[in-house]
Amino acid sequence: MIQKELKQLIDKYCMGIEATDAQMDEIFDLVGEMGADPQEVAEYIQKMQNGPTREEVEAKKKAALEAKKKAAQEAKKKAEQEAKKKTEQKVKKMSANSILFRYPIIFLVLLLCICLYYCSVDNDDSLDKQEANIELVELETVEADIASSDDDYDDEDDTSTSVEEKLKKRYDYVYIFSPNGLFKVEKNNKKGLCNSEGKEVVPPVFDYIYSPLNGTIKVEKEDKKGLLDANTFKVLIPCEYTYIYSPLNGIIKVEKNDKKGLFDANTYKMLVPCEYTYFYSEQNGLIKVEKGSKKGLLNAKTYKLVTPCIYDYIYSPSGGLIKVEIKGKTGYLNMDGSLARRPE
Question: Is the dihedral of CA 168, 174, 175, 178 positive or negative?
């Protein structure tokens, strides 16, 4: 089964369109990190590319929502009109009865029937109350159907109807965001977050807000990504990066202007600035890096460059030494990255 974050990323890049090479690289990097089935992912990507675009889906969703709201409003208006019509009919009936007072002969009849008259008034009052209660129940049912329709469309469980209704008056769209009571809100096509009490915790300034993962929330603004703390909503990584990869071995890889850097996944402190084109896996306390077509080595604990990016090839350690090549010449490095023998 494809994980939720991976599915969101595929939906974003492949919905009705063909993803770029860089976007596909990001998707399959995440596939490797999450251990997803590549065949299943490929089939899902094909399905999304053959389907409608995100704009078409959003337009259809908003149109359906507006149609349901309009239908509910019309039902409510009809109920109000029916109630008004019944009231007018009662007023006309009472006006017709008042004509009886204009004729003296009727007055005698009225005296004989006065007891029955008051009894009928009591009965009418009881009937009015019953009809009023029925109309009130009908209106409440219509309003409940409106709330239920919105919740079913968003495919989320309603945890706080009253808060959600209040938020709908302040924002264009409101969605239940996570099980802990967060609401994703939208205003002027920008998204933010409100807590279970309706307080705005993240202002609506982002183009996209991903689901929480590993205690963080990935956000996007003008095609640049950042990270928020999922509990305090403070900015952990600013929206400056083209890609932010999932944490791996306590490290978060980021990309900016086609160059990659590293963040600490616990402190969110930048360890390596975005100046390398590729990072290799750690080996014997060293991380091989590329800058352009040249390779060097970083210390895996301090993340300091211990071997400059000047070599064409850096091989795996053997016999306590690391073989390197530059311009066809072979040399060797010590296991700490220092030069052991000059290339010749």
Answer: negative
* Residue that is written with structure tokens 């809100």 in the block: 185
Token pair 């709330």 in the structure block, residue = 147
pTM value? Answer: 0.55
Q: Are 178 and 211 in contact (CB under 8 A)?
A: yes
- Higher-pLDDT residue of 106 and 9 is 9
Across 55-82, average pLDDT: 83
- Are 83 and 89 in contact, with CB atoms under 8 Å apart? no
Residue 322's Cβ-side half-sphere holds a number of Cα atoms within 13 Å equal to 23
Q: What is the pLDDT of residues 139-175, one digit of tens each?
A: 455 444 544 444 444 444 444 568 889 999 999 999 9
CA atoms within 13 A on the CB side of 154: 19
Q: How many CA atoms lie within 13 A of 325 on its CB side?
A: 7
> In sequence order, what are the residues at sequence separation of 6 or more whose Cβ sits closer than 8 angstroms to the Cβ of residue 214?
246, 247, 265
What is residue 266's three-state secondary structure?
Answer: coil
342 neighbors 333 (Cβ within 8 angstroms): no
Q: Which range in 77-81, 88-92, 149-153, 168-172 is most confidently predicted, on average pLDDT? A: 168-172
Which pairs count as long-range contacts for 19-27, CB under 8 Å and 24+ apart, including other chains? Answer: 19/45, 19/49, 22/242, 22/243, 26/243, 26/245
Burial of residue 149 (number of CB atoms within 10 Å: 0-12, 13-18, 19+): middle
Q: Judge whether residue 186 has pLDDT over 90.
A: yes
